Please model this.
Amino acid sequence: MEALPKGLWAMYYLILLLTLISAIYSCFRFRMLYWAYTCIIVSLLIPIVGLLFIAQRAEGTNKLGYLFSQLAKGDFWAVLIILCLAYIGTWWFLFIREEINMDVIIRRLQALRETVKKCFYKLNNKIGRKKERS
Model:
């Protein structure tokens, strides 16, 4: 089997690093503390458990394929890794929802829509006047 691209692994570890940073940030802001504490532990635990888990694979098998094959067999460590990854996905959903004020974004989008409508109206009037003159 082919090895996975190095860029994919770099992105995976970058997401884990950003998850750790966002959880620490959330702790300093005293928001979602229990989620953040758990997320810190999980984001540090995944690479360690993943490394020990992947070390068991046979030569020539790719890491992701091995994870899914072991998951299909019900291997405890594979299930743990998948659950930790699901937790990180949930963390990002909750973190983004907590940090981004959707009401402000909706008001800004509505104001932008009104501005665009006015610009198109002005542009349409200018084009209409030019056609009348011709």
The helical segments are 6-28, 33-54, 63-73, 76-99, 102-133. The chain has five helices and no strands. The first helix runs from residue 6 to 28.
